[in-house]
Amino acid sequence: MPEQHRTPVTVIGLGSMGSALASAFLAAGHPTTVWNRTAAKAAPLTARGARLAASATEAVAASPLVVVCLSTFGATRAALEPTASALTGRDLVTLNSGAPHEARAFHAWASGEGARVLSGAVKNVPSAVGAPDTLLYYSGSRALFDAHADTLRVLGGDTVHLGDEPDLAALYEMAVGSTLLPALAGFFQGAAALRSRGLTAESMVRFSEKWLDMIKSLLPVYASEIDRGDYSDGASSVNLFLASAADDAALGAETGVDTTWLAPLHELVRRAADAGHGEDSIAALTEVLRKPAGEADSPWQAAP
User: Fold this and answer.
1) 3-state secondary structure of 160
2) Cα gap 291→277, rounded to integer Å
3) Exposure pattern of 163-191 as b/e (b: 16+ CB <10 Å)?
């Protein structure tokens, strides 16, 4: 498509991810305006043809589509509040972290200022931005998403609209992201155990990759069990995981590695067994994690 038909885009926030987003828009031929509190971060982009705005207000006014990539919804609102007069009629995409209630509150504020809002998340590292298989998902108005789908797909070929509710991207971001720290902590524990024997962490990488592939293959099975509420296939039972707790403690004692971070997980497994799920699939932990019906309303059921 000729450049004159490319939607002009503004990118606010030029950390490693924001810079990658702006770079992808430039590479695809979109007229790109950028702004960052530290203007020097824009130098590599302006050298490639980006326009550096003198202020956040000027940056917002420069383009019909404004992409903000800051750390949190609070930081995004703080950056945009001085630009409120320029937000009317702008299409605003937020790519930051935050809880669902923060996404709803931000959507209400920005909509009140006259902007149309999509909340989104980039599910990969900055170097993967623009790749055909890079996943980004968004929530908010379907019509707004459709209007900019081709432009947003420049950032990653696997571009998904989750639904009209403004907080769905934040919800999925936290739901999917909850696997990251436990998985990494497990890898780091294993690396510490190997290092205690003078072995390298690198030596276990390919084995860990195979292990993660196996876990990946189980996710559809567990998801089906959870959605059906049927945990009767106990091939990987709660009791099996409960029995392994002693092995974790023994590994810590032998290698001098601190395994106490696992204690809450072992307690969760014990609670599942006490609740009668001992011979059920380990996916029954989902039932222990859920609040009993009527105990408390889900926060996203409350008014924004």
Assistant:
1) strand
2) 16
3) bebbbbbbbbbeeeeeeeeeeeeebebbb
Residue 159's beta-bridge partner residues?
136
Buried b (16+ CB within 10 A) or exposed e, 137-151: bbbbbeebbebbeeb
Both structure tokens of 151 = 């432009």
From CA 156, how far away is CA 100, in angstroms rounded?
Answer: 23
* Residue 148: both structure tokens together: 């900019």
What is the residue type of 135? L
pTM of the entire predicted model: 0.89
The tokens describing 244, both together, are: 């392994």
d(CA 145, CA 159): 10
Round to whole Å and give the CA distance between 136 and 10: 18
Per-position pLDDT tens, the chain of length 304 = 444 579 999 999 999 999 999 999 999 999 999 999 999 999 999 999 999 999 999 999 999 999 999 999 999 999 999 999 999 999 999 999 999 999 999 999 999 999 999 999 999 999 999 999 999 999 999 999 999 999 999 999 999 999 999 999 999 999 999 999 999 999 999 999 999 999 999 999 999 999 999 999 999 999 999 999 999 987 899 999 999 999 999 999 999 999 999 999 999 999 999 999 999 999 999 999 996 644 544 544 444 4
The full set of domains in the chain, from first to last, is 3-175 (3.40.50.720), 179-289 (1.10.1040.10)
